[in-house]
Amino acid sequence: MNSNERIAATITKICRREELLADMPEDADFFDHGASSLAVIQMQIRIEEALQVTVPTSELMGQPTIRDWINLYTRAASASTEAGTPAAIAVG
User: Fold this and answer.
1) Sign of the dihedral through C-alpha 19, 21, 24, 25
2) Any long-range contacts for 29-37 (C-beta under 8 Å, 24+ apart)?
3) pLDDT-derived band of residue 87, with 50, 70 and 90 as boundaries?
4) How many CB atoms lie within 10 A of CB 86?
5) Residue 5: beta bridge partners?
6) What is the pLDDT of residue 85?
7) How far apart are CA 60 and CA 73, in angstroms?
8) Residue 14: which of 85, 89, 32, 53 has the closest Cα?
9) What is the pLDDT of residues 13-47, one digit of tens each?
10) Residue 55, Cα to own-chain centre: how many angstroms?
11) Cα separation, 91 vs 30, whole angstroms
């Protein structure tokens, strides 16, 4: 499994743990499916611990779908690899 596939699998797995999001399409909005802001932040924390990549909460809240999060975290991981720096950077 390559890095992008690992990122996608990790994000999908963590998001699907939320009961309200278990069967949600990847392009559906978390909030439209009843997820709270707290649940979204908890998913963010779990994802960032697993991937060792961070994305600003404001960007994640502005793009609250599994597909969007996969894109944001993939870009952040790629940018940090290219720069040779920790992945705690904004992507935007």
Assistant:
1) negative
2) 29/64, 29/65, 30/64, 30/65, 31/64, 35/64, 37/61
3) very low
4) 10
5) none
6) 53
7) 9
8) 53
9) 999 998 889 999 999 999 999 999 999 999 999 99
10) 8
11) 20
